[in-house]
Structure formats: C-alpha cells, structure tokens
Amino acid sequence: xxxxxxxxxxxxxxxxxxxxxxxxxxxxxxxxxxxxxxxxxxxxxxxxxxxxxxxxxxxxxxxxxxxxxxxxxxxxxxxxxxxxxxxxxxxxxxxxxxxxxxxxxxxxxxxxxxxxxxxxxxxxxxxxxxxxxxxxxxxxxxxxxxxxxxxxxxxxxxxxxxxxxxxxxx
Length: 170
Known about the structure:
Layout: H1 2-20, H2 22-25, E1 36-38, E2 45-57, E3 66-73, E4 79-86, E5 90-97, E6 104-111, E7 119-126, E8 129-132, H3 135-139, E9 150-153, E10 157-161, E11 164-166
Parallel strand pairs: 1-5, 2-10, 2-11
Antiparallel strand pairs: 2-5, 3-4, 3-6, 6-7, 7-8, 9-10
C-alpha cells in the first residue's frame, strides 16, 4: 500500500514539474541577446571573478559585433555551452569557484566572424584571476604580451580585463 501511495505522489510531482516547466521544454523561436553572462556556481565560495573586455580587429582595433560560443567545464563529465553576444565588441562574464579544491577552471571560446580567421582559444580562471593559454600566439603571431589579461583585486571580486584580437582571413 505504501508503494502505491509513493508511486502516486511521485507521478503527481513529475507531472506537475512538467506542466510548470513547459517554457523551458518547448522549442521557441525567440532568441534573447545576452551580452552579460552569469555563470557563478550555486555554491560559490571565495571571490567572484568578472571577465570583461572587447572583441577587436587586430590591425585597426575597431570593435566587432559577434556571437561568442563559450564552453565551460566544471567537472570531468559535465560541460555546458553558452552563447554570448558582443554588442559594439563589449562582453562581460561573471563567474566564481565552487567548493571544489580545483586550482583552475577552463573556458573555451569560439568566435566565428565573416572575413576573420575562426578563433578557438582557452581562458583559465584561477582563484587569482584570469590567464590565457599559449594558443593565443598560434592564432595571432603579432599578439603582444601586454595584451594579456589584467587582473585587479577588489573586496570580494577579481576583475579581469581581456580583449580578443581577431585576425583577418587571408
């Protein structure tokens, strides 16, 4: 008898969840423009990190409007993809660390703009800010070391500023 009651309550709960969450289950044609991405873990501890900057042409330093595909991997098995739109070349990402003892977390950025080489690079988020991977120099041999992320520590937040310099396709 208890089993039947349990099954009945469980089926009511799951059907209620499905009915209340139809907005996230049904495919919609509306697409929101997101230029500020918040991926702070639910159980964030320590300092939060804000990564902000511009998407620029490497020669002219003019801003580029584009979509950025960001893949974050918080653990070994689960990665999540995000879409961020850089309006006037400006982007902003809010993140932080969970209770895990990880030293760094990797964020993979994919930027495809017509007329430019596709960018596929990594940023590493550490407890002291943001760092780039050496693949930045493979994409853009003219990348200057002074264009690396600048990390400024504030009360309970690190603000990292990093500009992506896209190279024209030849």
